[in-house]
Amino acid sequence: MASKKIELDHKDMVHDSAIDYYGKRLATASSDSTVKIVSISATTAPSPVLATLTGHYGPVWRVAWAHPKFGTLLASCSYDGRVIIWKEDAHGHWSQAHVYADHKSSVNSIVWAPYEVGLSLACASSDGRVSVITMQADGGWDTATIERAHPVGATAISWAPATALGSLSGSGELVYKLVSGGFDAVAKVWGFDNGSWKLESTLISDMHTDCVRDVAWAPVLGLAKSTIASASQDGKVVIWTKGKDGDKWEGKLMRDFGSPVWRVSWSLTGNILSVAAGENNITLWKEGSDGQWEEVMKVEP
């Protein structure tokens, strides 16, 4: 398959991109304060820009598509401290469905919950708080906040899979957990209990000595353990694993990349980890049967 070039027409640096559920459209976030929606299924070149979403007053750091069972919704977060949830109508027009402006400084990361637990968006901000905004049955939005989640600033957030360890999909209780990362070089696991978020574990590692830039909770798919990857400004990726409830999280250095690691993300089956580090260095990793991680692919820029 020939590679295809996409002209984004942003006036400044692009910080994030996300492909929708059907693989037809790409959303991009830029320092020019806009979000763009581009068709990637169109056969014409260059790919048409379908919409430019304006409403932020500073660099837009992240974009995230909601599951299509909730309609066509896209969330964005910005240096301006705002989170905007955009909705597309049947005619392709985008509007602001909800603006969350309670954070006091930059919102650095957003992630939608697994669709099974409902329409909930978790947000991590430089003001130290993590907030979870959830759509109610009447269409209004409710907010739960973790105050002082990372007092010097929260940088990254990821949801746990909705199904419990070892259980088949669709059976048993749903899991409501989050992992966050911060400027404090620490990752923390939170659980929703009796109507509020509570700290379950602080993943303190002498391996991370600088800001945790990203965290990613792996899909479980019937596995007997939970796995989280954390990536840091210090160049290191740490893999955290935990067996059943009551066990402790164990951290193990996967690799030191020698330059800041910006993003980590798991494949849908949870067995391949993609790592973005330094300048355009993207690699894919898989755990061998001996527990050592090996590089399986390098993505050439």
TrEMBL record:
Pfam families: WD40. InterPro entries: Sec13/Seh1_fam, WD40/YVTN_repeat-like_dom_sf, WD40_repeat_dom_sf, WD40_rpt. Belongs to the WD repeat SEC13 family. One of its GO terms (cellular component) is nuclear pore outer ring. Required for protein transport from the endoplasmic reticulum to the Golgi apparatus. It comes from Eleusine coracana subsp. coracana. The keyword NAD does not apply. GO terms for molecular function: structural molecule activity. Keywords: Protein transport, Repeat, Transport, WD repeat. GO terms for biological process: COPII-coated vesicle budding; protein import into nucleus. The lineage of its organism: Eukaryota, Viridiplantae, Streptophyta, Embryophyta, Tracheophyta. Signal peptide: none annotated. WD repeats lie at residues 53-87, 205-240. This is Uncharacterized protein.
